[in-house]
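Continuing the series of single-chain predictions for the mutant panel. This is the parent chain; the variants come on the following pages.
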Amino acid sequence: MRADRLLSLLLLLQNRGRMTAAELAEELECSERTVYRDAEALSAAGVPIYAERGTGGGYRLMEGYRTRLTGLTEGEAHSLAFTGMPGPAGDLGLGSDLALAQLKLHAAMPDALRERAERVSSRFHLDTTAWWRRPAATPFLAPLAEAVWESRTVRVSYRRFDDTRVERSLDPLGLVLKGDTWYFVARPTPEPGGAEKPPRTYRVERIGALEDTGRPFTRPEGFDLPAAWSSWAEEFESSRYTLRTRVLLTDQGAELVPVLCSPRTAAQAEYGPVRADGRREALLTTESVPVAVHEFSRFGPDIEVLGPPELRRAMARHMEGAAALYRGDPGDRPAPGP
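Parent structure:
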């Protein structure tokens, strides 16, 4: 909206001092021609804004002028929880609200505090995306967030972990950003006269379609989103790490456990005494035989699997297959048959 852009332009000049039309256009995500028109509109409205020509020129406000239009709208107040996280705020449709809210807060600060806040923001940055990954597409995140804000029931088409599709009527209770992955906690909508079911956790990226029904629901009394998430996350991790393995590790292998295994496997590792051959027995808990083969094969000769038997056999097949690839000259092995 033009009114928001005009206010943003005014607050940018108030907070930063002189800025060129190009700098303002980049901040406001508009053209320089639009900046010229907006500056003229502010001047016509009585705002003491001046254009300085030549090198080092730009727009500035009259010395000592400060606007008091710093009240936050409802959307801007919602966005403050994402201060320092413009990416997630943008995912939720709050990017422009957050930018304007931050400008208003800076404008309302005394000079000393404003300078300190600007110094902190220029020295610390939060990037929630892991290396070599792009965040999953979440086209339904913003409408889902709106349903969370307003406590409205939604109908979703959801892809389960086995790729089957299900239709669900849900009362969304909250959103959680774990690393760079969005989840939402929702209660299955109770049937008329039916018993209320406990909340469950879903991945936002698996939503294939979403319909906001417009029907309001009453949140469960005393529902605590952080506590619900912590409980579910602990249960989820525990349910995946169920394979207990016995291994022998060299000194080098023991040092590699925190590097080559998952953090949970490394944290739960139990080590026994050193044997006569210099190796140490250890108990390592991991997710499954395929995951253990993938992790343990990277240790090379610094690990030997003692059990369970199915894992030892799988490791033997994997290592024998890898060794066969390196016998003889590269490319000499015949292609596998049909």
